[in-house]
Each structure stands twice: as C-alpha cells, then as structure tokens.
Amino acid sequence: MKLLRSTFLAFCMVSSASGFAPLISSKSSSINDIKRHQQSTITISTGNIAPISSTSLFVGIHEQPASSVSEDDIRKETMFIQVRKEVGTAKEYLNWLVEECGTSTDSDDDDDSTTKEGEGITFADVIADKAAAGEVELFGGGGDAPSSPSSSSERKETTYVPALRSDLGDTVLLTGTVDATLLNILNNNFFGQDSVPNFEFASIRALVDDVPAAKKKAISREARYGGLLDKLVIEPSSGDLPSGEELAGVSSWIVQLDGATADNTATTLSKIAELAEGSAELNNLIVMVSGTTSTEGWDAVEAASADGDAFKCTLLSVGELYDATEEKGGFYHIGPAVGEEENASMPPRLSRKKAYQLLAHALALDSTANRALAACEYSATVVEAIGAPYAEGEFAVRDDDGNEVVDEFRDIKMESRVIQAMRETGFTQVMELDVLVDKGLAGYKEYIANPPNKENAFAARRSARDEEDEKIMAILDAEIAASDARKKDEAEKQKTIEIEGIAKEWAIKEYSLRMIGGDLDDSIGEEDFMASIWDEALAEGERTYERINSEEYIKEQERVEKSKVNLENKLFWDGMPPVLRKKREKMVEKVKRQYMDLLSEEDLERIILNDD
What we know:
Elements: H1 2-12, H2 31-41, H3 71-101, H4 123-132, E1 171-175, H5 180-187, E2 203-208, H6 211-218, H7 221-226, E3 232-236, E4 252-258, H8 262-278, E5 284-290, H9 298-305, E6 312-322, E7 332-336, E8 349-351, H10 352-364, E9 371-377, H11 380-386, H12 410-425, H13 429-449, H14 454-458, H15 464-517, H16 526-532, H17 534-548, H18 551-563, H19 578-595, H20 601-611
Parallel strand pairs: 1-2, 1-4, 2-3, 4-5, 5-6, 6-8, 6-9
Antiparallel strand pairs: 7-9
Helix pairs in contact: 3-12, 5-10, 8-9, 10-13, 12-13, 15-17
C-alpha cells in the first residue's frame, strides 16, 4: 500500500503527464535538447533489453490532439520502426549462424534412451529422476535443487559456439602492460564477468620497469577477491623486451607497444619475431600497438610464424587510447588492418578498457590467429547517422535531379545492426568479437544478397527443452499405446468369457427343452449334447452378446427403466407380472367387502399398496 501511495504521489507531481500516455515533448524545447535526446536513444544497450521508441507517438486510451503530433514525429516513428526491422534481419542472420556454427548446450553423453541392461526407460523413470534431483515439485513445479552452471536459467539463450584456441597453455607473459582489465579477464574468475572457456592460466607473469608502481596499479579489490594474487607474478624486466631465458616456459605472450614512432615500432616487431621464433614453447603471440594504425614491421612476425606452424600471431592496432569517463556499450569497428592513409575516415581512437577487452578476447579466439586487425570507435557524426535507416526506398536521400544518393554510411549501419542484434540476443563479448572478425561485414552482406532457404535452415531448430519434451512425449505415447493394447486384449478375453457363458446357458436350456419335447434320446447326457452343438451355441451366444451390447438394446432398457419410475405408486400397469396382478385383484375384492361403506377408493388403494 505504501508503494502504491508513493507511486501515485510521484505521478501526481508531474502536472502535465497523462495517466495513460507519457508526456509529449514540448514544442518549445531547444534544438540542442532534441538532438541530445535523439543521440541518447540510439545508444545500444549491452544487455538483452530491446530499445524502445524515442518518439512521442505513444497513444493510450485517449486520442492525442492533432496539434501534439507533427509530421516530424510521425517520420521519426517510421524511421524507428524501419531500424527495428533492420535489426530483426540481423537477428535472423545470427540465428542462421547458430545453425551453421552453433552446438547444443546439452551433453550428448546422456542422450541414451535405454538403461545399461537394455531395458527401455519409462516415463515413471524420467519423473523419478527429476524428482530425485529436485526438479519436479507439487503440480509439476520446479523444486529447490541448486542450479548448476549448465541449467537453462544460467546459460545464454544463444548456442553460438566460436572456435577457441586449444594451445594457450598454463603460463602467459605480459610485456609493456599490467592493466587491471586485462589481468581480470586473464584470471577468468571474477563475478559478473563473462568467462572465457579456454583461459585456464595457472601463472600470469608480467615484466615491468617499476615493480612497486605496477603492483599498485594491478592489485585491486577485484584482484584480491578473484584470486588473481595467487597467479600474478610481477618481475623487473631486463629491457624493453624479455630475454630468451625469461621466455622459457611461456606458452602465450602478450605485448603492448607504443606506436608513436613508426620506425621504432617496426624495429621492435622485428626483435619480437626473432624472440618468438627462438622459443620452442611459445604457441601464441598477440601484439597491441597503440597510437597508430600502421602495420609496418608486422610482416617479419608473420614470416617467423610460418603461417602458424611455429606459433600463432595476432596484431591489434587501436590508435590513441583514452580513459572513458562512463560505462557504455558504444559502437566500435574491428576488422582487417589497413594503412593510415586508407584509414583516414576512421578516427584512430579507442577507450582503454575496450582495447584491453579486445586484446584478451583476441587471444582466446582461433579466428584472430595470423591476422592483423585494427579497432577504433566511431565518431559522433557517424554515431548520429547510424540511428537512421538505410538510405534507400522511402528513406533515400535524393539530389537536385531526383536521383538517389549513395548511402556512404550503409556499411557502418549494417555492422551496427549486427552488433545491436548480438547484444539484444545475449552474445558474450567473445562471441561478438568472433562474429565481427571471422564472418565480418562481408558475411552479413553475403547473407543479405543470397538468403538461405529459411524453411530448411530453421526447420530443425530445436532447443534442448524441446528435444527433452519430445523424448518424454515419445515415452508417454509408447506407454499409452502399450496400455491401449493391454486393455484391448483384456476386453477381448472378457468378451470371449461372456460369450462362452451365454453359449453354455443356451445349450443347457436347449437340452432341457429337447428332452421335454422328446427330441433327444434319454441315453444322451447333458455334456455330450453340449459338445455336439457347441459351435451352434457359440454362434447364438455371440448374437446375443452383440444384441445386449447394441445401442438399440441399451436405449430400450433405458425406456423400460423410465417407465418403471412411477409404477410403484400404481396398483395395476401394462406389462405387470401376472402373479402380482392376481394377488392385488384378490386383495382389492377382500378390502371392498370389508370396508365398502367406510373407505373411499383412494383409501382402499393406499391400504393395498402398504400391505405389499
């Protein structure tokens, strides 16, 4: 009640709000306020909550005044609906990817429908197992069994499974950075953080120039609570790069370089290639270059890796790093690295946290192996353009001659639709990065240009729960069929018994009638007679059985029963037994002789009925 009161008071304090429709923006709002509002509504949520319309066309049970909805509001609503359709198409693309690349989250080891002895599992066995596990409660509800990581309530809705590297080993070395975000992801044991399945590092080593400063930066509350301190080893470095001895025992190596000077970066990459080539235990090398998007010098690393035969290498160019002031999903681009001269339209800038997230997740994925990638954020102008639909059809921009102008932001819009669809669907950051790097924009364009046969592609899409339900229903159908067959067999046996009983009674009666009529010799016994006419008796019994079980006979019996309802209140009626009729006639004569002068006809009838 307190909640209702507070809600009502808070609502009443908004003077111009309607009880059934939100407040429509005032026409006196400034242009800057409107722009800020529009910009805030096109930011993609990183959760599973779908964005809602930012326009004022929210109509309740009251009709909105015509003056309150302008043509601009209608167009905004139309554009929003079109954007949602484009996101829906991206979700269909993701569903197709799940069909192509995804797997079921259920284990195939328990997909056996028979017991060890080869006996079929019954429905009772299934229910008993669920009840023992606490999964079934009264009226079919869920029990109080502790939820497991594989339960449907905790796992992601999507079953998309990216290809992960299997040779990361148990020791990772960091050079040039001890960023807390990177360390927490490598530790892979922090509450609220999506886990990376193949991150099982037992030792996380970092070589730095200033050990006390690095420890102060790296050791945080998350590090203490997540168990990072049990794995992290921060040691002083012998130079800008580790020596061959310091690389001993390292299976994965993460390097961060400051690419402000291209010549120094190229030289350092050459040295890294030599060290990686000389290490027999190194399997994975990933280098993040900040301050530039140049790939100069990376060819030496690729040559040393021998196309992944010696080790897997990944380059991530992120441009200028900056500390974000607030947490938000944001739009970013990641794809094949191009030269700085070709990347002039993309601002080489990325938040520090996002850069280290991409760095860690790139180490986990197999799709990033032997790739040179570049990542950057979209500018404010691009972000504003993303909020509009594709510039085609009714949303096309036309020149002075009426011709459609090519949408220069179409590719960026398409990429943003895929990102938004992944975040609304529940893709983890590792899944998101795998889709953007492995399939990329080219894969989505191919899907749009040549859509698969949806009837064939999605006909077999079934969740684990659907498959389990089908198994249970199959068990139920089998038991119902067995029960029906058993009941039918029992009914046939009962019918045979009843027919034989009727046949026996008919044969005994026929024997008596024929003996009385002199049709049989006295030497013929009852059993011999029954054996001689048993086939005839069975035929007669079957005809009698069919007649007494027919609908006509049943209806006739019902009519007879209905006619007998009020017969007990009458002295005489049609079909009355002769003995009873004769008895009552004598009683009537006797009573009349004794009480003729004293009783009426009604009293006489009551006395006779009571005597019965």
